[in-house]
Each structure stands twice: as structure tokens, then as C-alpha cells.
Write a structure and sequence with these properties.
Chain A: This is Branched-chain amino acid ABC transporter permease. The complex is a heterodimer of chains A (about 325) and B (about 290). Helix content of chain A is about 75%, strand content about 0%. With about 325 residues, chain A is mainly alpha-helical. Chain A has one domain: Orthogonal Bundle (ABC transporter involved in vitamin B12 uptake, BtuC). Chain A has a two-stranded antiparallel ribbon. In chain A, helix 1 packs across helix 8, helix 3 packs across helix 8 and helix 14 runs antiparallel to helix 15. With about 290 residues, chain B is an all-alpha fold. Chain B has a single domain, classed as Orthogonal Bundle (ABC transporter involved in vitamin B12 uptake, BtuC). Chain B has eleven helices and two strands, in the order ααααββααααααα. In chain B, strand 1 and strand 2 form a beta hairpin. The radius of gyration of chain B is 19 Å and the shape is globular. The chains are: A mainly alpha (about 325), B mainly alpha (about 290). Chains A and B meet through helix 5, helix 6, helix 13 and helix 15 of A and helix 3, helix 4, helix 9 and helix 11 of B.
């Protein structure tokens, strides 16, 4: 167990007995500063893209931001607690299809669709976690791996949302305050990304995050000193599910057409794991770095090489990085410093 | 006889045959996951890779797919040794199996699947031996050779493995490594060498299962995905490290899945696998026949 881990265990002891919690030792988290910075950066991105005035900019931006949400979500459970969720594509598709189903049934628009999708996938995460998290972590991972396959079966067999033929969503030409539909989708995803990174950062710096880190470093020791491990793991699984579903809900609105094959694409499953691990799992900044780097590379590469080769390279990068740089890019910098 | 009853009986019999195939697929995992504690989620992908190489070699040389499956097993044994070497060097030795090791096997699975798509395209591949179209009939019950031959091969492989583990010195060492690797070291047996050998065997079994799979159904690069749920559910139900348990669980599973498919349609069979997995994990994680450790 690392020194940081021991600190994590000590810091998390207070979780079981709320009254005994002393003021913790972490540096002041500067929450206000972070949110201000994130919003300013977001605004700068919107202004910058509008000045460039190219629709492709919004497309590429949406692509990368969606992965920032997805990998930040993965990191809350995988990076902080060390529990691997292989079902990113399943959660994402569940969010997307919730949005489609609610639009068909009640004519719900994008924003309420996002909220509903987060609710549904949060429950999905909670349920899977509740059934499997009392066992060793690998069982949870195996269950999430199968979850995606089963959800795909359900969707393919569910004619109401189009079955294997897919579903269409008619996109409006313009949404008033925005110059184009592409910009509208970009801004929606930008806000989701800021929210996701903010939540992931808040979790990391809060006592919840310290409890999760204690679980990752030594679950038995954490349990023994009074960290309510199951409850913390369930909270993390639910949060992870919510954010993954939220990342998927705008997908049908973005592409105008969605079929199960695209929604359950292998690309989501592998990127959601590769990005945080390559960027540096366990820190809120790692997934952001990974998503910008890998997402940007893939966006640039799809123009020149086939998408299968593209994914193949991501797979190799994942294997090479976890073998040679287990702390990711962030760990590389920290060791130097 | 009552047609529903005939349907049910046929469902059970072909379920047992299907269970033979599942046993072949899950045995390798019982060795790697059950005995060695290596969570090889790439096992079904390796099986599909074996299936593709059977199609390739069998078509080129005009050989029987089951024969090719046995002949190619040594190559996959070497591949398994290579994979274990990488896994041991970078993850097991450092004590980073949980997160990084799992991600490694996920990466391997992904590389195999996408690699197959790139090399062969996403279409289904098949290689039908001549006996695939023959069906024996015993009374009202059909025994298609397409299912029977792979099931027999699977049983033979399982029996050979069982004898090996129970009778030979290295086989016993594999069982010992599963119980206490440190104790083995004290008896001057290198546990890493034993694990490498056993992992190689498990991958060789995956390729044999791949050959059996080709005879039963056409394969495509993503065929392995459905098998993840099946083989892990079977392996856990069978009590992880027990071969007889694994066989029993596989036969039971084949029957349940096949009867479901007979009465409700085959598109639901992945859901059966997952439902079983969840139920087993929630209520009997120690396996159907095991006691709580």
C-alpha cells in the first residue's frame, strides 16, 4: 500500500462516524476558482469556434467533449475506487435510447431527455452494483461487460425504438440564439463536460473521493477502519452510470439517426477505458488530457485511415500504456517534478 | 407423443449437445480464471481467433475443422505462453492485476476482435464438414452430427485435461499453484513456470473450442462477445476451479438456454446468459455445488 493510500484510509475513517470528523489535511480545493476557470475556458471555446465559423469545428469539438464526459465518468469508479466498468457503450446507448423512447412517447425535448437518461442509467448502475459489488471487483467488471451485450439484445428486439433498423430524430435547422444546430449541440455537450469534470473533481477532493481511494488501495483495511465501502462503491457506480447516460442522451439528436450498432459501438467501450488510463487515472485531470489527446488524434486520423485501424491503434495504445506507463501521462509529469 | 413434449425433449437433448460446446469454451477459463486467478476476459476472443484460423487452414488444406482444431492447439499454446509472459512481467509481478491487468486483457480482446475485422471483414465465415448435414434419429429425438461431433471432441478434451491434472506431476503442480503458490516455491517448483504452462493450456483449449464452434455455427469477429457472459457464468456456477463442476454447469446452461430458445425465440439467448450470471453472482457466488470459502 502506498503512502498516499494510507493517508486515504486515515482521511476516510471519519466517513463511518460523521460526528468524529476532524478538519482534513488536504490543500484548500479552490472550488470557485475551478468553476470560474472552466466557464471562462468554455466561453472562450464557443467564441473561438464562432470566429473560425466552420461546422467541422463543432463536430470535432462535440466528439472530444463527449469523450471527456465519458472518461470522467469512468474515472470516478475506475480511477478513484479501482473498479473497472467495461460497459461504457451499454450505459451510453441506454442514455441515447431513453432519449429516443421519451421523445417518441411524450415528445420530450433534448434537455429533459438528458435528465431522464441520467436517471435511468443511474438506476442501471445502482442495480448492477447492488447485485455484484459485494463480491470481488472482477465480478462487477464481468457483469458490466455482459450488460452491454444484453442491452443491445433488448434494443434490437424492441421495435418501438426502431429495433435493428434504427430510429430517426428530425433535427431543426436552427435553434434561435445559436448560429447553427451544430453550435447548439456543441454548447450542450460543453456544459455537460464542464459539469462532469466539475463533479469528478469535487468527488476526488471530497471525503467520498478519499474513501474511494482507500478502497482502491486496500479494501479490507478500509473496511476495518470503518469506511462504509459498499455504500461508497454504490454511490460511485450510480454517479458513473448517470454521467455515462448523460453523455449518450444527445447522441441521437446529434447524428439525427441512431441504430443499435452505432450506439453500442466498440469505440465507446475502449475509449472510455483507454482515455483515463492513458491520461492518468485517479486524478480528475487525467481523463480530460486523455480524451483531448486520443479524441483529437482519432478525429485527425479518421480523415486519413479507416475507422477500424483507428480503433486498433487505440487498443494497442491502451495495452502499451498500462504495461509501460501505469500512471499515465500525468504520472509521468509528477515523477519528473 | 404430445408435440410439445417432443419439442421439449429435443430441446433438452440438443441443449446437452450445446452444453458440450460451452464446456469446451468454459474449461479453459476454469483453468486460467478458476485455478490461476487470471481474469482472462480475452478468452472468448481467443476462441473466435481459433475459429478463424480453423476456417482458414481447413479451407486451404481441405481438412476436417475438428482435426485442424486439435492440430493447431500447440500454436495457441505458444501464444498463451507469450500472453502470460507479458502479463506476468508487467502486471502480476508488480501486483497490479486488479485495474491494469484487467485493462490489459480488455485491450488484448479488443485488438483480436478489431484485428479480425480488419483482416477478414465483418462477415460470417463457415466451414461445413460433410457430416454437418447428417442427422441421426432415435425415436422422436434428433441427434444432428453438427452438434454431436463437437460435443464429443469437447468431452474428450475435458477428459484428457482432467486426467492430466489428476495424474501427472505437472498437473498436480497446477492444482497446487491454485491453492498456494508460495508453498510450491518452498518445494523447489517454480510457480511462474507452472502458471505459464497452465495458461498456455487454457489458450490451447480456447482454440479447440473455436474449432468446435465453427462446426456448430458460422462465426464472425464479434461472436466472442456473447460468449463472455456464458463462459463466466458457467465457470462461476461450476465452482471456478472444478472441471466436473464446470461440465455440469455447462450442460445445465446449454439446456436452459436451448429450451428458452425453443419456446421464446433464439434472439433472447444472450439475455438468458446474463440473467444467469447476475443471479449466480447475487445468490450463489460460491458456485452451484460449492461451499462458502
Amino acid at each position: 500500500m502506498s503512502a498516499a493510500g494510507e493517508r486515504g484510509v486515515e482521511a476516510a475513517v471519519g466517513l463511518g462516524a460523521p460526528r468524529a470528523a476532524p478538519k482534513l489535511l488536504a490543500p484548500s480545493p479552490h472550488h470557485a476558482l475551478f468553476w470560474l476557470g472552466a466557464v471562462l475556458l468554455g466561453a472562450a471555446l464557443v467564441v473561438g469556434l464562432r470566429l473560425i465559423g466552420n461546422e467541422y469545428g463543432y463536430f470535432a469539438g462535440y466528439f472530444i467533449l463527449q469523450y471527456i464526459v465519458l472518461s470522467s465518468a469512468w474515472n470516478i469508479l475506475g480511477g478513484y475506487a479501482g473498479y473497472v466498468n467495461f460497459g461504457a457503450a451499454g450505459f451510453m446507448a441506454a442514455g441515447a435510447y431513453t432519449a429516443i423512447a421519451l421523445r417518441k412517447a411524450f415528445g420530450l425535448d433534448l434537455l429533459p431527455g438528458i435528465v431522464a437518461a441520467g436517471f435511468v442509467t443511474g438506476l442501471l448502475g445502482l442495480g448492477t452494483g447492488y447485485l455484484t459489488l459485494r463480491l470481488r471487483g472482477v465480478f462487477f467488471s464481468i457483469a458490466t461487460l455482459c450488460l452491454a451485450v444484453v442491452l443491445q439484445t433488448l434494443i434490437v428486439n424492441w421495435d418501438y425504438v426502431g429495433g435493428s433498423r434504427g430510429a430517426y430524430i428530425v433535427r431543426p435547422r436552427e435553434v434561435p440564439p445559436f448560429v447553427s444546430y451544430g453550435e447548439y449541440m456543441f454548447v450542450v455537450m460543453l456544459m455537460l463536460a464542464i459539469l462532469a469534470v466539475g463533479i469528478s473533481r469535487t468527488v476526488e477532493l471530497s471525503r467520498l473521493g478519499r474513501g474511494l481511494q482507500a478502497i482502491r488501495d486496500n479494501e479490507r483495511a478500509a473496511e476495518a477502519v470503518g469506511v462504509p465501502t459498499l455504500r461508497l462503491k454504490l454511490i460511485a457506480t450510480t454517479l458513473c452510470g448517470v454521467l455515462m447516460g448523460v453523455a449518450g442522451a444527445p447522441l441521437p439528436y446529434y447524428s439525427g439517426y441512431l441504430n443499435p450498432e452505432a450506439a453500442f459501438s466498440l469505440a465507446y467501450a475502449v475509449n472510455a477505458i483507454a482515455m483515463p488510463l492513458i491520461g492518468g487515472a485517479g486524478s480528475w485531470l487525467g481523463p480530460v488530457i486523455g480524451a483531448v489527446l486520443l479524441g483529437g488524434l482519432q478525429q485527425a486520423a479518421t480523415v486519413t485511415i479507416s475507422s477500424a485501424l483507428n480503433l486498433w491503434i487505440v487498443g494497442w495504445m491502451l495495452v502499451i500504456f498500462v504495461a509501460l506507463f501505469p500512471r499515465g501521462i500525468i504520472g509521468w509529469f509528477r515523477r519528473r517534478a | 407423443m404430445d408435440p410439445d413434449l417432443v419439442l421439449l425433449l429435443n430441446g433438452i437433448v440438443s441443449g446437452l449437445l450445446l452444453g458440450g460446446l460451452y464446456a469446451a469454451a468454459a474449461t479453459g477459463l476454469a483453468v486460467s480464471f478458476g485455478m490461476l486467478d487470471i481474469v482472462n476476459i480475452a478468452h472468448p476472443a481467443l476462441m473466435v481467433m481459433g475459429a478463424f484460423s480453423v476456417v482458414l487452414i481447413g479451407t486451404a488444406l481441405g481438412l476436417d475443422p475438428l482435426l485442424v482444431a486439435v492440430l493447431q492447439a500447440p500454436l495457441f499454446y505458444l501464444l498463451g505462453i507469450l500472453i502470460y509472459g507479458v502479463y506476468h512481467h508487467f502486471f502480476e509481478k508488480r501486483g497490479e492485476e486488479a485495474l491494469q491487468g484487467l485493462a490489459f486483457f480488455f485491450g488484448v480482446m479488443f485488438i483480436i476482435e478489431v484485428g479480425l475485422v480488419m483482416a477478414f471483414g465483418p462477415e460470417q465465415r463457415f466451414l461445413d464438414p460433410p457430416y454437418a448435414f447428417i442427422t441421426w434419429r432415435i425415436g422422436e429425438i434428433d441427434l444432428p452430427l453438427r452438434m454431436l461431433a463437437p460435443a464429443l471432441l469437447a468431452l474428450a478434451a475435458l477428459g484428457a485435461l482432467h486426467l492430466y491434472l489428476k495424474r501427472s506431476f505437472t498437473g498436480l503442480a497446477v492444482a497446487a499453484v491454485a491453492q498456494d503458490a508460495e508453498a510450491l516455491r518452498l518445494m523447489a517448483v517454480n510457480p511462474v513456470r507452472i502458471k505459464r504452462l497452465a495458461f498456455g493450456l487454457s489458450v490451447a483449449l480456447a482454440s479447440i473450442a473455436g474449432g468446435a464452434l465453427v462446426v456448430v455455427q458460422p462465426v464472425d469477429p464479434s461472436s466472442g462477445q456473447i460468449f463472455i457472459g456464458r463462459v463466466f457464468a458457467i465457470c462461476i456456477m461450476g465452482g471456478m476451479a472444478s472441471l466436473p463442476g464446470c461440465l455440469t454447469a455447462a450442460l445445465l446452461f446449454g439446456v436452459v438456454e436451448n429450451v428458452t430458445a425453443t419456446f421464446y425465440g433464439p434472439s433472447w439467448s444472450p439475455a438468458v446468459a446474463f440473467g444467469w450470471l447476475l443471479l449466480v453472482l447475487a445468490f450463489r457466488p460460491q458456485g452451484l455445488f460449492g461451499r462458502m470459502a
